[in-house]
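REVIEWER CHECKLIST
Item 1: Sequence provided? yes
Item 2: Single chain? yes
Item 3: Sequence as submitted:
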Amino acid sequence: MDSSNTAAGLAGLRCLVVGGSGGLGLALSLRLAQGGASLTLHGREPARLSAAAEAVRYASPEAPAPKLLVCPLEPLGELLPRPLLEAARECDALALCYGPFVHASLAETGPADWALMAAANLAFPAALASEAAAAMAGRGFGRILLFGGTRTDAIRAYRRNAAYAAAKTGLAVAAKSIAAEFAPRGVSCALICPGYVDTEYVGGEFKAGMERASPRGRLIAASRVADFAARLMEGGMDLANGAVINLDEGLA
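Item 4: Structure as written out by the authors:
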C-alpha cells in the first residue's frame, strides 16, 4: 500500500491476522477479505489454516487469495518466531487475535500457567506489535489491532481466570504506548475487549454460564465484533488511536 495514502478503506491493505484460522480471527479475516484486503492468515495447524483460507475464498471470490503462514506459537520458547516477525514487519495492518486461556482458581493455577499466560497474552502480542509499529513508522502508515479479554479494560478481581486477565489487562498499556510513540509517523493502535462471543471454542456448561451472565441472555455473534474491528482497521482507528474499546453490550 502507498505509505502516503491514509484514506479510509481496506482495498489493497496488506493485513496480517495472527490467529486467523478460527474464532474471532477467522471472522475478522472474512470481513477484511470482503473489503478487498490482501490477507496473510496465521495459524498453527496446516489443515485448519487451509480450511480457513477456503472459507475466505468462498466468501469473497473476488478478493486476492490469502497467503498462509503456519507457525505454532506454543510452547513460546522463541517469543517472536522469525517467519511471523518478518510478516509483521511487512504488513500495513496487523490484527492479533491469538491468546490461550486458563480457566482455574488461583489455587489451581500453577507457575507454568502464569508463565504461559504472561508470555502468550502480553509479552508476545506487545513485542510483535512494537516490531510491526516501528517498521510501519518507517513507511509512514500502519494500523495495529490488539484483542484483550472480557472485562480486561481495567484492573479487576477474577475468581477463575486471574492469570489470563492479568496479562490481557496489560495490553492496554501496550496499545496506548504504541499510539503515543508512533502516532506522529502515521501508525495507529487500538485494543478491543470483547464480551462473551460465540465461537467454536466455547461449548457445554461453560457456554451456558456465559449466556446466563450476558446482558441480553445470549452470546455475541463473532461477525458483529469482526465488523466493528474491520471498521477500525479501514480507518476508524486513526481517530480512536490508543483507545481501549469494550464490545460487551454493557456487561457489568
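Item 5: Key structural point noted by reviewer: Residues 14-247 form a domain with the Rossmann fold fold (CATH 3.40.50.720).
Item 6: Recommendation: ____
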